[in-house]
Design brief:
Helix content: 25-40%
Number of domains: 3
Strand order of the largest sheet: 1-2-5-4
Distance between the termini: 20 Å
Structural class: alpha+beta
Number of strands: 17
CATH topology of the largest domain: Heat Shock Protein 90
CATH class of the largest domain: Alpha Beta
Number of helices: 14
Shape: globular
Largest sheet: 4 strands, mixed
CATH architecture of the largest domain: 2-Layer Sandwich
Radius of gyration: 22 Å
Amino acid sequence: MTPEKLNEILQKGEGIEVEFKTSQFELNKNAFETICAFLNRRGGHLLLGIKNDGTVEGVLEDCVQDIVNNIITNANNPQKLSPPFYLSTQFIDYEGKKVIYVYVPESSQVHSTNGKIFDRNEDGDFDISRQTEQVTQLYLRKQATYSENRIYPYLRLSDFKSELFSRVRTLAKNERADHPWLDWTDEELLRSAGLFKHDHQTGKDGYTLAAVLLLGKDEVIQSVLPHHKTDAILRVENVDRYDDRDDIRTNLIESYDRLMAFVRKHLPDKFYQEGEQRISLRDRIFREVIGNLLIHREFANAFPAKFIIEKASVVAENWNRPHDGGIIDPANFSPYPKNPVIAKFFKEIGRVDELGSGVSNTAAFILPELNRNLLRRIFSERLFL
């Protein structure tokens, strides 16, 4: 956020998507009530260092880092925010004063803080924990908005690829030697990953679309989503059609493997050394690109995801509900989770890092090799929608 944008928000004042907190010395005790309400409603902008009337007092410079650390730590603490959620923060210098900006996107999950569920309206944050009807409507809205939460009550454990469970446990172990998935049954793993939910409309329980896409058998995926596929295309010599193609119609874990294999088959791996160790710059970059392509996608739409290698460029396309338009600035952007349950699963098995790190990581690898204009072209909306 720029000082100009901040000034525009100050002129409009607080509302359903804007909240001011003073937080001169420490984070306000009710700040996570607002964060929870934003996550549950439609997202919003939390600005610390500002009074309710829009007067900018600023956060004491010596306290800024402690407040930011407090936000990040508690956002990842299920005892404080359940389920946990990745939040990004930004410092803004405004008329010589420090303001902390926290962008809170709408979440696909229903969140609680300190055991209470909060919702948001024009007048502020409201505890709806005991309002059964409002909580039910909140769950229904999330399910309708985020297709990954769609529930299939007649799916059974036998509809999933049994060999994939062994594989994801191995991948999770590589990330964390004592990962709890190692000791859990397949059913416990699915439930812990948020892949089994209650349908508040029908009253039935069931596995979700995210579960099917991550671990389902191919025939089950095609039964649930007949249009589901990812198209990997090489178009260098035969630009009217293609030189090579992989029509991928399988789960997201094996889709990732096949896309990476396609990259290794058709793209060179320039020598690159980090310290005393050689690393694959190609794999580092396209790990992030392919992770974004698979995770941040509106699966209910029939438009296929595409990964196209051309003579002078690589293009990744998928269909989604964009939160904003224009070119992404790697140095100043806020991530928007399209399928956070799927993203979290990929993080557990080491296929992606924290939400939003893909752009910054890729920028860090590309910057020494490319000029800034080309970098901006790479991070266009065409690649990371």
